[in-house]
Design goal:
By secondary structure, the chain is α+β, with helices and mostly antiparallel strands. The protein folds into three domains: about 80 residues, OB fold (Dihydrolipoamide Acetyltransferase, E2P) (Beta Barrel); about 60 residues, Dihydrolipoamide Transferase, CATH 4.10.320.10; about 210 residues, Chloramphenicol Acetyltransferase. The chain is built from eight helices and 21 strands. Strands 11, 14, 17, 18, 19, 20 and 21 form a seven-stranded mixed β-sheet that branches. Strands 1-8-6-3 form a four-stranded antiparallel β-sheet, with no helix packed on it. Strands 5-4-2-7 form a four-stranded antiparallel β-sheet, with no helix packed on it. Helix 6 packs across helix 7 and helix 6 packs across helix 8. The chain is globular.
């Protein structure tokens, strides 16, 4: 008879904690090795976590909705079938879903496991807090905990980056997150409030972007009798924050081009079976991704990001492909897309989309995108005006591809109206760093590539 610890996994090098969003099994259920038993949400992805061993789920130590550090024991599996199950009345879980019928058991964390850092007593008001690098380390049962360790557990890499850029000591920023964690809204609000910059001898920190209005979620509507209220998932919350921030930060401008996909359709019809035999679904999106990747190298201003009063031209071309999920939107990234063939791009897009829907993506697969493509046309949309995926400077929206009447010039020079397979490509770009002429030149080249796609593309 043995009990196996089930831990909160580290879903990427920069991930310090995760939220246990849903238990897929309850105490007393039999589980198989590698069978998903709970779902987690990080600030990057949602994922299903498999059981490390087969047996019976004997204890649940972390309830739905709780956020804990990586390596925290969240449950225990009894490896001998039919073993006794220890249960106790469960506390109310913070999430709306009912908690599993097991109590949170306070047990010492095994050695080398990350524990929630102890809360620090506030300094007297008259005393200025010392910089993190000069604070003494605190001891715990697992050895000394450095100031850097405390900061790592109190903020995400993005928050620490913003703090470093503005010379802000995170220990003086009030945190509204779990266990006092400093969130992005906390640090942005702290900076926009004109708080002192420790790096500049007390002068007020200047935010990278001066918004005309602060982000405000508004008062929110009240439910009426008979309404169904569905709390946002973590991914929905993150998407909402990201989209509102992007509209506030970037000077959005859109341009629209109509594309004749007749030639692409002919090539696709010839190659579709060949690709299917190789296990690849050849879609129009693969052709569009190929054309975009090739032309980003010629137009580096579209494969860029905005820095501190500077434009960062990305060396890598990493295409984000937006995937609509039942519970939100996610953008997995095809790395080094310009180095892939048409078949390679089609395979990568199919694979990332399937794993996004089955919650099998790792955090690394949704990071470091340099340009994004979203495809509302798959749902029948004629054209869309997408919001830029920060910190990128442009995003393309693919409209539905269908037969339309078009004027064509025949070989003898006369014009005629004929059915052509057409669709809209729209691009939103950040006018702070991308001029309209540059955006239109790029999209014109994408159009040219698609309408004269080479026969030997493989």
């Amino acid at each position: 008879m043995a009990r196996i610890d089930v831990i909160m996994p580290q879903m990427g090098e920069s991930i310090a904690e995760g939220t246990l969003s849903k238990w897929l099994k309850k105490v007393g259920d039999e589980v198989k090795s590698d069978e998903p038993i709970f779902e987690i949400s990080t600030d990057k992805v949602d994922a299903e976590i498999p059981a490390p061993s087969g047996g019976v789920l004997a204890e649940i130590l972390v309830q739905q909705g709780e956020t804990v550090a990586v390596q925290t024991v969240v449950a225990r599996i009894e490896t001998e079938k039919g073993a006794a199950v220890t249960t106790a009345p469960a506390p109310a879980a913070p999430a709306p879903a009912p908690p599993a019928p097991a109590a949170r058991v306070e047990t010492p964390a095994p050695s080398r496991r990350a524990a929630e850092p102890p809360s620090r007593q506030p300094e007297p008001p008259s005393r200025q807090p010392e910089p993190a690098s000069r604070r003494p380390v605190e001891a715990s049962g697992d050895g000394p905990v450095t100031a850097a360790d405390r900061l790592r557990h109190k903020s995400t890499p993005l928050v620490r980056k913003i703090a470093a850029e503005h010379g802000i000591d995170l220990t003086v920023v009030p945190g509204s997150g779990h266990a006092g964690r400093v969130t992005k809204n906390d640090i942005v609000g702290f900076i926009e409030g004109g708080q002192p910059d420790q790096r500049t001898g007390g002068r007020a920190a200047q935010p990278a972007i001066q918004p005309s209005v602060r982000h405000d979620t508004g008062p929110g509507a009240e439910p009426w009798a008979g309404d169904r209220v569905e709390p946002w998932s973590r991914i929905r919350k993150l998407t909402a924050e990201h989209m509102v921030m992007s509209r506030r930060v970037s000077a959005h401008v859109q341009t629209l081009f109509e594309i004749d996909y007749t030639r692409v359709a002919q090539i696709r019809a010839r190659k579709k079976k060949e690709y299917a035999d190789r296990g690849v679904n050849l879609t129009y999106l693969a052709f569009i991704a190929k054309a975009v990747a090739e032309n980003l190298r010629k137009h580096p201003g579209l494969n860029a990001a905005v820095g501190q009063e500077a434009t960062i031209f990305r060396r890598e071309i990493n295409l984000g492909i937006a995937v609509a999920l039942d519970w939100g939107l996610i953008v997995p990234v095809v790395r080094h897309a310009d180095e892939l063939s048409l078949a390679g791009l089609a395979r990568a897009i199919n694979d990332l989309g399937e794993r996004a829907r089955s919650k099998k993506l790792s955090p690394d697969e949704v990071q470091h995108g340099t340009f994004t493509i979203t495809n509302p046309g798959v749902f029948g949309s004629y054209a869309g005006l997408p919001i830029i995926n920060q910190p990128q400077v442009a995003i393309i929206g693919v409209g539905t591809i269908e037969k339309r009447a078009a004027v064509i010039t025949q070989p003898d020079g006369t014009d005629a109206i004929a059915p052509r397979l057409q669709g809209m490509l729209t691009m939103s770009f950040d006018h702070r760093v991308v001029d309209g002429a540059d955006a239109d030149r790029f999209l014109a080249d994408v159009k040219k590539t698609l309408e004269a796609f080479p026969d030997d593309a493989g």
